């Protein structure tokens, strides 16, 4: 009897001990893993992205926060952007700030220098780009791309530096970017070809990757079905508000009325162009297809948006494989 009671007591003690271990280890595992993920939010560290550019980077990254949020990615963005700013200009601002940190000339980014902005935290990715008008002339990148790269790595040694490949102007532009000295590109295609070659040449020299927004623009522009085609029946000189040409599938702003004045912008991205740029950035930065994302900017038809998502991911994958088109 005494032996049976002892065995029962031992079994009960073991059961209590095992239960204690299960509870303890369960709590320990939970504390290490952290709280459950928020629905739609991926269990990953935030991506800290710093953009050195101009209005074109502003266009390309316009919808990136919304796309990232939908995709479940936490994104922190820092910016050093000035309208029409070239690599040379960005570097000259660095030199001014380094020569005299108190000189306002070096604090062109809303009262701050590039050093001040880059030193504010730790950045995972830093992007660079050339001014679009100069993007087809490889000599305009030298030596400023290298100097900026070295400066970035000095301040942020663990950051990945990436080139943002800008896009060519719309097919009906009244002029295109420089390709060599004073020689200008003669078409959207030539501007894309020359700027692409320049970006990739400098990227190879620096050992960095290229974010192929310009390639994605050209894939759409040159597509027989989805590319923009000039409305030959529209006469800008005699147009009356609010008449506009057919600008279906335009990735550029194009014609628009400012009260009674007809304006034409063949350089900057339209809502569709900004969307395409953001999709390329998304696919490149997160190594993830944006095809199933549902966010849609105002004025972009659903079928066209679906093609833009598909094209963005095809372009990112193609560049990784070393394919031009």
TrEMBL record:
InterPro entries: DUF4886, SGNH_hydro_sf. This is DUF4886 domain-containing protein. Residues 50-174 form the DUF4886 domain. It comes from the Bacteria. The lineage of its organism: Bacteria, Pseudomonadati, Bacteroidota, Cytophagia, Cytophagales. It holds the Pfam family DUF4886.
């Amino acid at each position: 009897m005494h032996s049976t009671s002892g065995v029962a007591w031992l079994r009960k003690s073991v059961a209590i001990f095992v239960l204690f271990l299960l509870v303890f280890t369960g709590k320990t595992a939970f504390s290490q893993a952290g709280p459950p993920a928020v629905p739609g939010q991926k269990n990953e560290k935030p991506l800290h992205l710093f953009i050195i550019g101009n209005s074109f980077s502003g266009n390309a990254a316009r919808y990136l926060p919304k796309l990232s949020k939908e995709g479940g990615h936490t994104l922190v963005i820092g910016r050093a952007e000035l309208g029409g700013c070239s690599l040379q200009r960005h570097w000259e601002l660095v030199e001014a700030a380094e020569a005299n940190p108190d000189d306002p000339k070096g604090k062109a980014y809303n009262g701050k220098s590039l050093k001040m902005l880059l030193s504010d935290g730790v950045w995972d990715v830093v992007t660079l780009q050339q001014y679009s008008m100069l993007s087809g002339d490889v000599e305009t990148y030298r030596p400023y791309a290298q100097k900026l790269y070295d400066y970035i790595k000095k301040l942020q040694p663990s950051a990945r530096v990436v080139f943002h490949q800008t896009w060519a102007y719309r097919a009906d532009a009244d002029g295109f970017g420089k390709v060599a000295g004073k020689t200008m590109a003669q078409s959207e295609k030539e501007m894309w070809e020359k700027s692409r070659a320049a970006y990739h040449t400098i990227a190879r020299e620096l050992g960095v990757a290229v974010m192929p927004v310009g390639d994605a623009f050209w894939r759409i522009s040159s597509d027989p079905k989805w590319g923009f085609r000039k409305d030959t029946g529209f006469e800008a000189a005699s147009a009356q508000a609010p008449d506009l040409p057919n600008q279906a599938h335009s990735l550029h702003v194009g014609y628009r009325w400012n009260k009674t004045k007809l304006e034409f912008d063949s350089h900057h991205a339209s809502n569709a162009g900004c969307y395409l740029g953001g999709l390329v950035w998304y696919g490149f930065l997160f190594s993830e297809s944006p095809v199933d994302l549902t966010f849609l900017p105002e004025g972009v038809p659903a079928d066209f948006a679906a093609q833009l998502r598909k094209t963005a991911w095809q372009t990112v994958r193609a560049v990784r494989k070393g394919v031009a088109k």
